[in-house]
């Protein structure tokens, strides 16, 4: 594998190449030609070629520090958001009933809406009714929480910090 000088990683039991040299954020990244880039994206491109505009790197192993090309795949932002829904859902487990939303929750909901995650999935993820999601979508509630700006397609989701 083509490795850039300075990238160091350990191999875990699960076969992940966990980056230990660039761990300042959720996703290990470095600068290439003056541009911030995630190492996972770099490694993937070295192995399989340039990633088309609008696609993001997803971790099949769920380990965001992993840079094993075998654990990486490309997907759309929408798929990425849906992964997040599934993860949140399992993380929240049996949390039941009508949740009280926080401003942060609403921001997450608005981001999901922006990227086309179905209302139903968002509702399950956030433990609220679909009506709640619909009201947010229609700007009937939570209007003081600003809608996030949709990023230009070329930018990677990992630029979010
Ligand atoms: Zn992995």
Q: How would you explain this protein's 3D organization?
A:
Strands 1-2 form a two-stranded antiparallel ribbon. The radius of gyration is 18 Å and the shape is elongated. The protein has 161 residues and is an alpha+beta fold. Among the domains are: 68 residues, no CATH class; 44 residues, Arc Repressor Mutant, subunit A (Orthogonal Bundle). Strand 1 and strand 2 form a beta hairpin. The chain is 34% helix and 15% strand. It contains five helices and six strands, in the order ββββαββαααα. Zinc ion (ZN) binds next to loops. The site of zinc ion has 6 residues, from loops.
Structural class: alpha+beta
Distance between the termini: 28 Å
Task: Work out the helicity level.
Answer: 25-40%
DSSP summary: helix tally: 5
Poorly predicted regions: 93-97
Major pleated sheet: 2 strands, antiparallel
Bound molecules: zinc ion
SSE string, helices as H and strands as E: EEEEHEEHHHH
Rg calculated over all Cα atoms: 18 Å
Strand order of the largest sheet: 1-2
Q: What is the residue-mean pLDDT, rounded to a whole number?
A: 81
Tell me, what's the shape?
A: elongated
Short recap of the structure:
The protein is an alpha+beta fold and 161 residues long. The chain has helices at residues 39-48, 77-92, 103-114, 119-126, 130-137; strands at residues 9-11, 17-19, 29-32, 35-38, 55-59, 72-76.
């Amino acid at each position: 594998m083509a490795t850039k000088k300075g990238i160091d990683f350990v191999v875990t039991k699960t076969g992940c190449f966990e980056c230990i040299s660039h761990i300042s954020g959720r996703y290990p990244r470095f600068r290439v030609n003056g541009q911030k880039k995630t190492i996972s994206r770099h490694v993937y491109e070295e192995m399989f070629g340039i990633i088309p505009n609008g696609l993001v790197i997803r971790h099949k192993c769920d380990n965001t520090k992993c840079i094993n090309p075998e654990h990486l795949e490309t997907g759309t932002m929408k798929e990425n958001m849906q992964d997040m829904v599934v993860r949140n859902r399992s993380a929240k487990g049996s949390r039941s009933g009508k949740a009280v939303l926080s401003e942060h929750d609403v921001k997450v909901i608005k981001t999901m809406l922006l990227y086309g995650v179905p209302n139903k999935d968002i509702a399950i993820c956030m433990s609220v009714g679909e009506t709640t999601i619909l009201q947010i979508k229609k700007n009937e509630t939570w209007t003081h929480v600003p809608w996030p700006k949709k990023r230009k397609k070329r930018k990677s989701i990992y630029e979010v910090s």
